[in-house]
Amino acid sequence: MPPSPRVPKRCEWCLSHPIYVEYHDKEWGRPVHNDRKLFEFLILEGAQAGLSWLTVLKKRENYRQALDGFDAEKIARYGRPKVKQLLQNGGIIRNRLKIESIIDNAKAYLAVKKEFGSFDKYIWQFVGNKPVKNRRKAMKELPPRTEISDSMSQELKKRGFRFVGSTICYAFMQAMGLVDDHWVHCFRRRKSK
């Protein structure tokens, strides 16, 4: 009888649902430098406020369709008719403040891109342009926010972004690989140089 394949060790937070496992294995914590992807996750993290990340992941494709593939230039031009349409869309989180914040965030995002040349250049400056590598061993070691996420949140708010509190910013940093919070035993942890 052949030996059974070894199941890789993963961060424990992702083990409760197959969607979490796939997201963890393929995306979470990998450094992202693509402006549209960074914008997408800033929007999705804001949509999560008060909800589970699983809820947002399940609606992610619906968000892509409803928000023109996260095209910030198109979103920045949305008016009342589009807001009304989005509020009727059961495939996304139908919260007026969150939907209106998406439009404001698209405008703020475009202003940042114009000033810095890219959103990537702006957002990665908060971590000195390289991922912060943490050595977490358990869920209790994951902080809800850090001094860096506090700073990012304050700066984003000054620039007109909404639903960007420090906890949301830290989750965004984890998702986009600005911080490496894969647990030390996780197969996805990047080796420190």
Notable features of this structure?
193 residues; mainly alpha; Endonuclease III, domain 1; 9 helices
Report on this model:
- By secondary structure, this protein is an all-alpha fold.
- The protein has one domain (12-23, 30-180): Endonuclease III, domain 1.
- 51% of the residues lie in helices and 2% in strands.
- It is built from nine helices and two strands, in the order αααααααβααβ.
- It has helices at 18-26, 35-48, 53-66, 72-75, 80-87, 96-116, 119-124, 147-158, 166-175, and strands at 132-133, 179-180.
- It has a two-stranded parallel sheet.
- The chain is globular and about 50 Å long.
- The N and C termini lie far apart (40 Å).
- The model has no long low-confidence stretch (mean pLDDT 94).
**How many distinct beta strands?**
2
Task: Tell me the number of helical segments per DSSP (H or I, 4 or more residues long).
Answer: 9
What is the terminal separation in angstroms? Answer: 40 Å
- Structural domains: how many: 1
Shape descriptor reads: globular
Instruction: Provide the CATH architecture.
Output: Orthogonal Bundle
Q: What is the average of the pLDDT values? A: 94
CATH superfamily: Hypothetical protein, domain 2
CATH class: Mainly Alpha
Strand order of the largest sheet: 1-2
The rounded Rg comes to 17 Å
The stretches of 5 or more residues where confidence is low (pLDDT under 50) are none
Strand proportion, as a percent range, falls in: under 5%
Q: Summarize the helix and strand pattern as letters.
A: HHHHHHHEHHE
User: Helical proportion?
Assistant: 40-55%
CATH topology: Endonuclease III, domain 1
Query: Which structural class matches the secondary elements?
Result: mainly alpha
